[in-house]
Amino acid sequence: MPNPHDEAVHDETVHDDASHPAPPHDTAPYDTAPYDTAPYGAPDLSTVWLRVLVEVARHGSFTVAARTLGWTQSAVSRQISALEAALGGAPLFDRLPRGVRLTEAGRVLVPHAEAVLERLRGAGRELAALREAAGGRLRVGSFATADAALVPRAIAAFRARHPAVRLTRQEGFTPVLLDRLTADRLDLAVVSTTGRAPLDAYTLHHLLDESLYVAVPAAHPLAAEPSVRLPQLSDADWISGSPRPEGTLLDAALRHGFRPRVAQVVAEWTAKQGYVAAGLGVTLIPALAAESVRPDIALLPVLDEEAPARAVYAATVRGRSLTPAAEAFLAALRESAARIPV
Q1: Which of 248, 243, 223 is nearest to 233 (CA)?
Q2: Which is it for the CA torsion 48, 50, 51, 57, positive or negative?
Q3: What is the rounded CA–CA span in Å between residue 201 and residue 191?
C-alpha cells in the first residue's frame, strides 16, 4: 500500500509572496530566530512550528493545513521554513508541483512532534481538572484525635463532591505534620496547639477551640459530678501518651500548680480508655474524641477559666498557594468542625 505522503496532493504550488496576503485574523507568529539549543543540547523549537508540521504532514498540503489552522498558505510556509532553519536547514518536505511530501528528516521528526503536542494537551487537561478540583491529588495530614470524627467526616464530604481527586491521608503528631508540610510531603495538615510546636511559619485556618474532659472509671467517686477541676485529681494516677506532662494535654495540670503522676504511658487515645475502664487511672480526652468514648467510663468536663482551650487549625505553608482541591477540603473541614461539640 503506498505511503500517502509519497503521493502528490492536488494543490497549487506554494508561493510565499504578496499575492497571498494574510487576513486580519492570521495571527501565526513569524519565528525566524537563528538555530539555538537548550542547555541540554536539544533544539529550542516553537510548539507552533510543531503544530504546523503535524498538520502539513497529515494533509500533505500547505494549503489544506492552512485552511485547517485558519491561516494563510504563506504563513504556514513561513512556519515550516523557520522550523527547518532551527533544525540546521535540512528540508522537512519536498515541495512538489502539487502538494508536499515528507523527507526522511520530516518522517523522523513528525512522531516526536505528535508526542510533544499530545503531552501538552494532556497537561492542559490536567490543569483544567485542577482548576475545577476535578482531578489531581491532595495529601492531608492530621493528629490522632482529629481522626475520630473531624477528618473522616470531612473526607467523606469531600469525596462525595470531588470523586476524581486522589486524596491520601497521613497521621502524626503536630510537629511531625508541620515538618512534612515544609518538606512538601503534605498539602494541608490538621494540627493543634498541644505540644508547643512553632506555628509562625504557617498559615493557620482556624477550625475550632476544643474543650477537655477527664475520663474516669464508671465507679469513680467523681463519676456522677457535672464537671471537675483538675486539682481535684492531683493525687490520681494518670494515663498519658508521654511520661512527662510538658507538651501534652497534661500541661493544663502544670498551670494549676501540680505535677500529675503518670502511671501508664499509652499513646493511642482509644487504648487509654481501656486502661481507664480497668481502673488503672484517669486520662484527659479532647472534645474531638468525646463522641467515641466507650460506655463503661465517665466523662467530666474540665472547668479551666484561666487557661485557653486547645485550638485546632488546618495549617498550610505560608506563601504557598492552595490548590482548588485544598480549598474545597478546607471548606469540608470547617463544615465538619461545626458539628463537633466543643
Answers
A1: 223
A2: positive
A3: 13
SS3 content of the chain, % helix, strand, coil (to 5): 40, 20, 40
Residue 263 host element (H or E): strand 261-265
Query: Please, are residues 263 and 280 in contact by the beta-carbon 8 Å criterion?
Result: yes
Angstrom CA distances, 33 to 44, 45, 142, stand at 10, 10, 53
Closest Cα to residue 283, out of 220, 195, 341, 208?
220
| CA-based torsion, 132, 138, 143, 149: positive or negative | positive
Q: Using alpha carbons, list the distances in angstroms from residue 203 to 143, 277, 320.
A: 17, 40, 9
pTM: 0.59
pLDDT tens digits along 25-84: 444 444 444 444 444 456 788 899 999 999 999 999 999 999 999 999 999 999 999 999
d(CA 118, CA 131) in angstroms, rounded, equals 20
**Which helix or strand (DSSP H or E) is residue 192 part of?**
strand 188-192
- Distance CA(107)–CA(92), nearest Å, equals 8
The alpha carbon dihedral of 125, 127, 133, 138 has a sign of positive
